[in-house]
């Protein structure tokens, strides 16, 4: 079985098994859009100088990369059962190469992030009248692409730790990310910088360099991290 045949076989298998989780992820993203409405309202009313701007930045930085991951029962058992390591060990007993396994995972990450992001940004734009008044659809697409590239870049780093670490270590890394995002949010607040509003301004000014650079970084990160995952998996012991 070739690399692409193996990757697509795994991708289809995971898709059939996870479609319910994908729907749940989309519902959760819609919920986040609703929760963020007051924060966006405050942001737009105060021209990026709102009191709660850092919370919006924190939520965006934290939640968008996680939209590349499907909410299912396995998510809640990383600590106790380490289901993903078990799945990797099982897949390796099949006539499927590490290259196919990694390619399947990175393709799934991109597909899930694309579906959920399109849904999330569409719901957000539909719910916020002020956002529609401030930004034309074409400008909003620029805005969404910037954050999509960010989510792809950070989501790829999550995938690296997911596939190369055990469940407990992976959860510890995820908690470390939360602390990292919180620190960035505090720094942005202390320096009176609002990433969301700055992105809105860049999008309204049609600064296409923002989404281009963001998407290129996301694509490069996905490819390079996929190669790193392949290298680490070849050395990982699943039976200790």
Automatic annotation (TrEMBL):
It comes from Paenibacillus glycinis. This is ABC transporter permease. The keyword Phosphoprotein does not apply. Keywords: Membrane, Transmembrane, Transmembrane helix. The chain crosses the membrane at residues 21-40, 52-71, 106-128, 140-161, 168-188, 208-229. The keyword Transmembrane applies.
